[in-house]
Amino acid sequence: MKAAVLHERNKIKFEDVVLPEVKADEVKIKVMACGICGSDTHKMQTRWNYPLPAVMGHEFSGVIVEKGENVGHLSDGERVVAIPFIPCGHCEYCERGDYSLCEAYTMIGSVQYGGFAEYAVLPAKNVLSIGNLDFENAAMIEPSAVALHSVLNAAPKIGDQAAVFGIGTIGMLVIEWLKLAGVKDIIAIDIAPEKLIEAKKMGCNYTINSKKEAMQERVMEITHGKGVDLVFECAGSRFTQEQSLLIPKKKGKVAYVGIAYSDVTLHEKAFENIFRRELTVKGCWNSYTAPFPGRAWTATIAMLQQKRLNLSAYISHRFSLQETQQAFDMMINREQPFNKVMIIPTIEVHES
C-alpha cells in the first residue's frame, strides 16, 4: 500500500510499505480521513522515541475491508473509528479501569503503523462503529474524546464560569463540551486574533488577547473580582500553564490538558494561590476509561449522531496522502492560520 512514511526528523516520503497480515482478532480498514494532531508536529521535530521508519496518524476513520476469523461483532463494509491506544490490560491501572494511566501501553501511529496510509490493521477491540456518520466527523472523535475527558474530570456545574487558554482544536472542543454541560460564561484566552474571532462565533461570552490586554485584570473585571470556577489550560505553553493559577476563584479547579514541552517555573503568587485559595489542580491525560474505550468516546459518537456536535466544522485544511509532508510544513512553519488539518487518502489533489 501507499503511505506517508517518517524516515527522520521532519522527513516524510510517500512510498510503498507492506502492511502486516490480519490476525484472528484484528481488522483491516481502508482509511478515509486522518487528522494531524499537534503532538505529531512536536514529536517529529523534537523527540521521536519510536522505531523508524514509522507511519504516524492516530485520529482516523475508515471502512472495514477484512477481518480476522475470531471477529464476530463487526462486518465487512462497516464504517468505524480507530481507537489508537492499546492498553496492556494487566497493570494496576488497567485492572481498575484507568486505562489512560496504563504503564505499558502502545500506540497506533507510533509503535504500529497509523492512519497516514491507504490501510491500517488494528485489534478489533480498537474500533467503534460510527453508523452513518461521515468520515471527517468520525476522524475528529479522538480529539473530541480528549477534550471531553478533561471536562468530565473537572466536573462543571450548571451556571459555572470557565476560562479556556489556547483556542486550538482541543480548546475549541473543550468549549463545545462546556456549553453542552451548562456552563454560563466562557472566557476564551489566546494571542491569535483569528482564534478569538472563532471563539466568539462559537458563543464564548468574552475573549481576551493576552498579548494585548492585562489578562488577569480583565478576568477579575468579568467575574467581579472573584475569579472563574474552572480553568482549562489547552495551550501547552509555560506562560499559560502558570497564568492558569492566577485566575481561579477560591475552591476553583484548574484542568491541565496541554502537553508541557519545557520547564514551568511558578512565581510566588501563582504557587500560593494553590493553597491559599484551596484550588483543585487536575491533570487530564488521554481519554480512556472503563468500559474501554470509555464514556468520552461513546458520548462523542452519541452527540454526533444526535447532531448536537459538528466536529468537521473545525477542519480548516485538507491534503491528499501524497501531500502529507506539505501539510506538516504548513503547520510547523506557520505558513497560514489553521485549525484541524486533515489527510484524506482518497483525494488526489489538494483541497482546502
From TrEMBL:
The keyword NAD does not apply. Its cofactor is Zn(2+). InterPro entries: ADH-like_C (IPR013149), ADH-like_N (IPR013154), ADH_Zn_CS (IPR002328), ER (IPR020843), GroES-like_sf (IPR011032), NAD(P)-bd_dom_sf (IPR036291), Zn_alcohol_dh (IPR050129). It holds the Pfam family ADH_zinc_N. Signal peptide: none annotated. Keywords: Metal-binding, Oxidoreductase, Zinc. The keyword Transport does not apply. Coiled coil: none annotated. Residues 7-343 form the Enoyl reductase (ER) domain. Belongs to the zinc-containing alcohol dehydrogenase family. This is Galactitol-1-phosphate 5-dehydrogenase. The lineage of its organism: Bacteria, Bacillati, Bacillota, Bacilli, Bacillales.
